[in-house]
Structures are given as structure tokens and as C-alpha cells.
Design brief:
5-stranded parallel β-sheet; elongated; 20 helices; disordered C terminus; Rossmann fold; alpha/beta
């Protein structure tokens, strides 16, 4: 992919001086139009060979436009807080809101490439990380982001010459470090791996633009004009390229559903409930204080029909936890700040660090439930969300998180009984709203959406636990039991593989 970036592209200083003022003015106008419309964010990735002008280009873009509306982030090795979270967590924190520009200097490509070049990670792991990146970028583009990926390239002789010129200049010698020279020793391997990475991640949604960095004028005009052209096309209404998601299956011919097949008659007496509650809360407390949990995190998701008992169950769970190490995050309609970001952003910001727990009272599954049924997003949005949610939970699990998901199921008749009880009880009136009554009218639509969700997002790493909850005492004990079992399974030592010996 780098052949065309090694032929000596150049622009004369005279031509540059003629075109640069017009480009600056046009970029500034486009930036203010972007800010005013606030319909999409612009994300610029700046990667490439050391010495190819990455830093100079980042500084130039900030100088040409209004830096107050540009967020520039430089990413190096992960620090302590970043290592305690999933790999992509730090990049989610740096995403610009709609109407803003984000420049990521060193991005989600840097660590996979360097780890593979230095033989820290093998090819299979490298390919898996590239696939995760492709999924992430598809999601960003589908959510409306304008994603530009600039790769600045230098041939090996030009890179060596660039380093020596910088070292000889007292004002710029600081730009070349021993680490730069050490990485230069691996130039050939680095370029080979980079070519593989770019080839596998240059997609219709997010193509790479390779820019030769030998000539500053050529490099600057190419980056600036490419940015201007992309922003203007989107401002003019050109839609992003989005892959079609897989369709959902039709309803079963016999009309049966997963929720309809549950046994809702199971119940517990108050005496049996109290005895088991104390035992399970003690067991859960010991599990969360296990020393091995210092290297893990815990993500618990509670979903269910209105009045299914999520809140009362969460209270029984938190009674067994250390308040210093957990948070309960209730999810309601997104705020203006959250609507300006991809829909998973507001959940990534609550991902716990190692040694901590988060309990979500409703969650990211709203995209494939309420947003689907109520028409708050397009069919394409909720159809692609299944894969995006699975990828999100896979990243949580691969970073050490224990992900436990509970769907609390009740029948339509039991929900109606609880609604009427709330309506008749003064201190429970706040729990029932006109929207709750309206949602009941769409029970069949929700039941189908729930079935599709359970089928498509119950995975080995993050399975769903469906709990019949007509009897609240039974459902609380069931949740606590499965929670303890899930923790015990996750903390159990891995079984050693048996080794066959020949005699």
C-alpha cells in the first residue's frame, strides 16, 4: 500500500503560498458550519512512520482552524487507570461530540501494531484486535461520525535522513529520542505489519489515506484539502457508507415465545425466603471480597418488564456488597450530552475499573427494546446493535470483567395486578406513570423484541439469566443464587489440560 507514497511527491513553496490561505479560510468556514449544524462529529486519526510529519500536521490543523472546538488527544502507553479498564475505554473517553472535531494522535492502531512488531503478541491476537477495530469503526460511522484515517509515510532512507537533520538542529533535536532510533531498527518489520493492518482495515466505511511525508508542503495541503472535502460533502448531505446488518428471523409459526414458556408458578414462603436470603447474601459478600476479585470487575445488568421487581432485587444484592466498591447506575432517557455521542458512549463511561462493580438498572439493551418498539431509532440502527452489543460485552469480558445479565419476566396479568396495587397505594404512586400504561398496549411487540434480544445476545462470555418473577421472593433468591454461581465459576481455577504420555 505504500508504493505510491515513496515516489517523491512534492509541492513548490510558491504553489503552497498561493493555496494555503484559501484552504485555511475554507477549513475555518467548514468548521463553523459543522459546529452550527451539530449533526455529526469529525474524528481524525493521525498515524504513521516516525519522522513523517504527524506532529507537525496536528499542530497545523489546530492553527488553521479554531482550536477551541477541536479536541486533540495524544495516546502513548496505557497508565494505571487505563490498564484497569478494557483496552478501548480510553478512546471512548476522547470521542468528540456532534459538531466537534477530534484529532487522535496515535490511536487504537498504535498498540496492536507495536505489540506485533516487537513479538509481544502473535498473529492470531493481532488479527483479532484488527477485527475489533473494524467493528468499532463500523459502529462509529453507522452512528454518524465522519472518520478520517491519515497514515503519514516515509521511505527508510528518508526517515533516517529526517532523524539526522532534526538531531543536527538545536531547536528540533528534542524531537528525536533514543526510543525513536530503537524503533527505527525495526523499520522493515514495522512497515510490513503496518501494511497488513492498513490493508485489513481500509474499508468502505473508514478508508485509509496514505500521505507521503517527505515534503512538508505536499503533506500539509493533502491532509488539509482531504479534510475540507470530506467535511463539505457531509455538510451537503452525503450519507456515510454503512454495511447492512443481518435481518431478524420471523416469528415462530406456532406463536410460542421464550417468555411464554417459563414456569411462573414457582414461589417461596416468607420463612424459606428469609433463611435463603441470609445465606446467599453472606455467600455473595465473601465472593466479592475474594482476593482474586482485585484483578476482576463485575458488571451486573438488570432488565425486565415494568413492575418486574428490578429495584427491590437490586437492593437485596447491594445489601451484600461493600458500598465503597460498587455503584448502581439507573438508565433513563439520554441527556443532550449523551445524544451527541454514539449510543454506547454513556455506558462506556460507567465501566468499572478492576476491583469494582457496577449494577445497571436498565442498560444498553434499550436500543433493541424500547427504541426498537417505540420507533426512537431506525430499523437499521437496532438491527446492527446486536453485533455491537456482543462486541462491547466481549471487550468487557476479555479485560477481566464478569458480566452477568438478568431478565426479570412477569406475565401480563401479574403486571396489571401490580400496576393497580401501585395506583391504590399512596407511597407507591410515583412508580406508575401514563407511559407505563401505554407500554402495556404494545406487550406483543415487546415480547417479540425480548425474544430476539435473548436469542442474539446470550453468549458464552455474557449469557442471559431469565428469571420468572411473578413471585418476588422466589425471583430475588433465584437472582442471588445465579449471581453467586456465576462468580464462583468465573473465579474457579482453570483446569489444566491433561497430557497424554506414551509408554
Amino acid at each position: 500500500m505504500f508504493e505510491s507514497a515513496e515516489i517523491g511527491h512534492s509541492i513548490s513553496k510558491k504553489v503552497y503560498k498561493q493555496r494555503e490561505p484559501e484552504l485555511r479560510q475554507a477549513l475555518l468556514h467548514a468548521q463553523y458550519d459543522l459546529l452550527e449544524q451539530a449533526k455529526f462529529p469529525v474524528i481524525i486519526l493521525v498515524n504513521g512512520v516516525d519522522g513523517a510529519g504527524k506532529g507537525e500536521t496536528v499542530n497545523l490543523l489546530n492553527a488553521w482552524m479554531d482550536p477551541r472546538h477541536i479536541r486533540t488527544e495524544a495516546f502513548g502507553a496505557m497508565d494505571g487507570a487505563e490498564r484497569d479498564h478494557p483496552e478501548m475505554w480510553r478512546f471512548w473517553q476522547a470521542l468528540p461530540a456532534k459538531g466537534r472535531i477530534g484529532i487522535l494522535f496515535g490511536s487504537w492502531y498504535t498498540d496492536p501494531i507495536l505489540a506485533h512488531v516487537m513479538d509481544h503478541e502473535k498473529k492470531a491476537r493481532f488479527n483479532q484486535r484488527l477485527e475489533n477495530i473494524r467493528q468499532f469503526e463500523r459502529m462509529l460511522v453507522a452512528e454518524g461520525a465522519l472518520l478520517l484515517k491519515f497514515w503519514f509515510h516515509l521511505p527508510k532512507p528518508a526517515a533516517r535522513k529526517r532523524f539526522k537533520v532534526l538531531e543536527a538542529d538545536p531547536k528540533n533535536a528534542w524531537r528525536v529520542t533514543p526510543q525513536d532510533w530503537e524503533r527505527f531498527k525495526h523499520y522493515d518489520a514495522f512497515v510490513t505489519v503496518c501494511e497488513q493492518a492498513l490493508r485489513k482495515t481500509s474499508t468502505g466505511e473508514a478508508p485509509w489515506l496514505v500521505i507521503e511525508g517527505s515534503d512538508p508542503q505536499y503533506r500539509s495541503l493533502t491532509a488539509g484539502e482531504s479534510l475540507l472535502d470530506a467535511i463539505n460533502k457531509r455538510l451537503a448531505g452525503q450519507p456515510p457508507v454503512v454495511s447492512s446488518p443481518a435481518p431478524v428471523p420471523p416469528p415462530a409459526l406456532d406463536g410460542r415465545t421464550l417468555l411464554g414458556s417459563l414456569d411462573y408458578q414457582r414461589a417461596l414462603t416468607p420463612k424459606a425466603y428469609q433463611r435463603r436470603l441470609e445465606d446467599l447474601q453472606g455467600r455473595l459478600n465473601l465472593l466479592t471480597r475474594d482476593p482474586r476479585m482485585a484483578e476482576r470487575s463485575l458488571v451486573i445488568v438488570f432488565e425486565g418488564m415494568d413492575a418486574a421487581g428490578k429495584g427491590s432485587t437490586i437492593r437485596r444484592v447491594t445489601q451484600a456488597l461493600d458500598a465503597r466498591h460498587y455503584r448502581v447506575v439507573p438508565i433513563a432517557a439520554p441527556s443532550d450530552e449523551e445524544r451527541a455521542q454514539p449510543y454506547l458512549w454513556r455506558f462506556w463511561r460507567h465501566v468499572p475499573r478492576r476491583g469494582h462493580s457496577v449494577l445497571f438498572d436498565r442498560s444498553w439493551y434499550g436500543r433493541v427494546l424500547v427504541e426498537r418498539v417505540e420507533g426512537y431509532c431506525t430499523q437499521a440502527d437496532w438491527m446492527r446493535a446486536y453485533d455491537e452489543i456482543n462486541a462491547f460485552e466481549e471487550q468487557l469480558a476479555s479485560s477481566g470483567a464478569i458480566v452477568l445479565k438478568f431478565w426479570m419476566a412477569i406475565t401480563s396479568q401479574e403486571q396489571l395486578r401490580r400496576f393497580n396495587e401501585r395506583k391504590a397505594t399512596p407511597h407507591k404512586n410515583f412508580k406508575i406513570t401514563d407511559e407505563d400504561w401505554r407500554n402495556r398496549e404494545k406487550w406483543p411487540d415487546y415480547e417479540r423484541a425480548i425474544g430476539d434480544m435473548l436469542d442474539r445476545t446470550s453468549t458464552d462470555l455474557a449469557p442471559w439469566h431469565v428469571v420468572a418473577s411473578n413471585d418476588k421472593l422466589f425471583s430475588r433468591i433465584e437472582v442471588l443464587s445465579r449471581l453467586c454461581e456465576g462468580l464462583e465459576k468465573a473465579l474457579a481455577p482453570k483446569k489444566a489440560r491433561s497430557v497424554k504420555t506414551r509408554h
